[in-house]
Write a structure and sequence with these properties.
This protein has 471 residues and is of the alpha+beta class. 27% of the residues lie in helices and 20% in strands. The longest helix is centred in the middle third of the chain and has 19 residues.
């Protein structure tokens, strides 16, 4: 569906129109777990203040212009063969809330984004929290069973344009460097029948839910004419970070497999809304991870280029068979959950979701201004237990690490951030990686001139703030 308005009540007898769950939505719905909610968190930092009533009006109108957002899960009998979305004319519940200013307001909003998924039975399955301070932080929480981050960012761009009257059209996507003549093909990838490496456990507290750390880093430098992209640099940095972490924790060296979402949708007002990315898996052998950095970057660039060009269903061919509506959906749910548990050892090591340069100005005009930073985070359910999400705004890289609290703890997140920054820096140099010098050797203790998270106001919170679900 596009941003062109359509009636929500075109069903028989004037009932709300219904749309069968696509494959991605159905598989996600089958596997929901209350202990680890499937949420996507988007955090937009603005330099100025927003008027709450104007924002509510603009955001509600943006939802109507992208009607695939205004939906709820339709009731069904036990023998129903499909989940269905029921389109609505407007929100069932208030979508925008304004939090009173406090020292912990931003941290609390982040915690809610990790632990409280908007219900699928109420339209829309998104929630927008406004955290005021010297500036304003918008925290958007999305139920990932219904929608993904890029789709909701498109809705936010429409809301910004309606609020401020500024043009928020997307910028042209950056061109991928041309393939170098005589570029060496990728080394043979490990078989997908071989279980990949898992993230070695750190110091978890065994509590349910996810923890999260966000950080602002410098964008990695690339030589002009390099055959690889920033995405390839991020992929190499992620792979070497995980390998380094596992080596430190005594895990046996094994091939890595990193899931990478690929989004081929246009970014204009006609962007299809929903879960529109397809997942590909980038593999790294143990031998490849030991290659000189430049050689590994070229190998990775060739591999990601080939994977992006390969036509493939969003979740592969097997998912389409699992979701064929030939038996009641409750039966298919039980089978899918069983297969997911059985396939856990073959699940990829981690997920890297690189949004890239945020394509919209997200300019709310007037006093509110234009976005200075945008963070995303993706669910980190076990058995992966760790996701890496990146985006760039205003010439800076915004990194979110999100982990299962049954696998890692906040100190582990800070160390992984240090390793990631080190290995990302290594992609700027033609050297083989060495042992890192930690960016922050005491991540749990602030420096004297830094406020602690409890002392920081929402707009002054340190960019590497760590957020956990409540115990």
């Amino acid at each position: 569906m596009t941003a062109v308005a359509r009636p929500a009540r075109d069903g028989a007898g004037g009932r709300p129109a219904r749309v069968p769950f696509p494959v991605v939505d159905e598989v996600s719905r089958h596997c929901l777990r209350a202990a680890e909610p499937e949420t996507v968190h988007i955090e937009i930092h603005l330099p100025g203040r927003l008027d709450p009533d104007r924002l509510r009006t603009a955001f509600t109108e943006a939802l109507r212009r992208h009607p695939r957002v205004l939906m709820r899960e339709a009731p069904r009998p036990w023998y129903g063969r499909r989940y269905e979305w029921e389109l609505t004319d407007g929100p069932d519940v208030p979508v925008v809330s304004v939090r009173p200013p406090s020292h912990t307001a931003l941290r609390d909003a982040r915690t809610r984004a990790l632990t409280e998924a908007p219900p699928l039975t109420k339209s829309p399955p998104v929630r927008l929290e406004v955290v005021p301070g010297t500036g304003t932080v918008l925290v958007l929480t999305i139920n990932h069973t219904a929608l993904d981050g890029p789709a909701c960012l498109r809705v936010m761009a429409t809301a910004a344009e309606l609020y401020g009257g500024r043009d928020n059209s997307p910028a042209s996507p950056p061109a991928r460097p041309p393939e170098a003549a005589g570029q060496r093909p990728p080394l043979d990838a490990p078989s997908h029948w071989s279980p990949p490496a898992r993230i070695a456990p750190g110091r978890p507290d065994r509590s349910p839910g996810n923890g999260m750390l966000v950080a602002e880093l410098a964008l990695p430098h690339r030589s002009k004419g390099s055959p690889y992209t920033v995405n390839d640099q991020l992929m190499v940095a992620t792979a070497r970070t995980v390998a380094h972490w596992n080596r430190e924790h005594g895990a046996r060296a094994r091939p890595l497999r990193i899931t990478m979402p690929v989004d081929d949708r246009p970014r204009d007002a006609g962007m299809p809304i929903g879960n529109g990315t397809r997942l590909v898996e980038v593999t790294f052998t143990v031998a490849e991870l030991a290659l000189p950095t430049t050689e590994l970057l070229r190998t990775t660039a060739a591999r990601t280029r080939a994977l992006k060009a390969l036509p493939r269903p969003q979740l592969g061919h097997g998912a389409a068979l699992l979701t064929a509506p030939v038996v009641p959906v409750a039966w298919r749910a039980a089978v899918t959950r069983g297969l997911r548990r059985a396939a856990a050892p073959w699940t990829s090591t981690t997920l890297l979701s690189n949004i890239g340069r945020v394509p919209y100005p997200l300019d709310f005009g007037g006093e509110a201004g234009r976005a200075q930073a945008v963070w995303f985070s993706a669910p980190a359910r076990m058995p992966r237990g760790l996701t890496v999400t990146t985006a760039s705004t205003a010439g800076r890289l915004h990194l979110a690490l999100r982990w299962s609290r049954g696998l890692l703890g906040p100190g582990d997140g800070a160390h992984l951030r240090d390793l990631f920054e080190h290995h990302l820096h290594q992609t700027e140099a033609d050297t083989t990686p060495d042992e890192p010098t930690p960016v922050n050797t005491t991540p749990d203790e602030p420096t004297p001139d830094e406020p602690t998270p409890d002392e920081a106001t929402p707009d002054e919170a340190t960019p590497d703030d760590t957020t956990e679900a409540p115990r």
